[in-house]
From TrEMBL:
<dbReference type="Pfam" id="PF08281">
    <property type="entry name" value="Sigma70_r4_2"/>
</dbReference>
<keyword id="KW-0731">Sigma factor</keyword>
<dbReference type="InterPro" id="IPR013325">
    <property type="entry name" value="RNA_pol_sigma_r2"/>
</dbReference>
<dbReference type="InterPro" id="IPR007627">
    <property type="entry name" value="RNA_pol_sigma70_r2"/>
</dbReference>
<dbReference type="Pfam" id="PF04542">
    <property type="entry name" value="Sigma70_r2"/>
</dbReference>
<feature type="domain" description="RNA polymerase sigma factor 70 region 4 type 2">
    <location>
        <begin position="108"/>
        <end position="159"/>
    </location>
</feature>
<comment type="similarity">
    <text>Belongs to the sigma-70 factor family. ECF subfamily.</text>
</comment>
<feature type="domain" description="RNA polymerase sigma-70 region 2">
    <location>
        <begin position="15"/>
        <end position="73"/>
    </location>
</feature>
<dbReference type="InterPro" id="IPR013249">
    <property type="entry name" value="RNA_pol_sigma70_r4_t2"/>
</dbReference>
<dbReference type="InterPro" id="IPR036388">
    <property type="entry name" value="WH-like_DNA-bd_sf"/>
</dbReference>
<dbReference type="InterPro" id="IPR039425">
    <property type="entry name" value="RNA_pol_sigma-70-like"/>
</dbReference>
<protein>
    <submittedName>
        <fullName>RNA polymerase sigma factor</fullName>
    </submittedName>
</protein>
<keyword id="KW-0804">Transcription</keyword>
<dbReference type="InterPro" id="IPR014284">
    <property type="entry name" value="RNA_pol_sigma-70_dom"/>
</dbReference>
<dbReference type="InterPro" id="IPR013324">
    <property type="entry name" value="RNA_pol_sigma_r3/r4-like"/>
</dbReference>
<keyword id="KW-0805">Transcription regulation</keyword>
Amino acid sequence: MTAIEFSFHIGRVSKSLKPFAMKLTRDYEDANDLLQDTLLKAFTNRDKYTEGTNLKAWLYTIMKNTFITNYQKMVRKNTFIDTSDNLHYINSLESSTDNSAASAFALNDIENAVKSLDEAYRMPFVMYFRGFKYHEIADKLNIPIGTVKNRIHIARKELKDKLHMYAYWN
């Protein structure tokens, strides 16, 4: 297979790798980096690909192995050796603190978005979010179950539009 043919086949398959990268990394930027590393490794090792085999599976394997290798490097980097007599391995992340300011801002944005929904959509959505079943909401609000489902769907759609900036946020 020529380099041009290989590039063409990789280009067709590479779009399906992005969701897998997002699932592994759970971060948009890290997923892009992982995808780039995977494609780079695929191009540099294209002589190891056997024509006629499943290219997609080959790329998924490269991506998974790259992710595992990067994760192991990160863990080793964040672990240091205590040079005292006992030689304990201590993970430095255990003593770190997490800044929850971003979470507080996100929660505030979510609350404001829910409050801004029209009352007809907000009530069924909030009840569903709190654990009520569709038929319980329909009985409580005295509306048909199809209307309940429709209003919850519309509320979720509006919230998704209003909170689009958090689409790839952890």
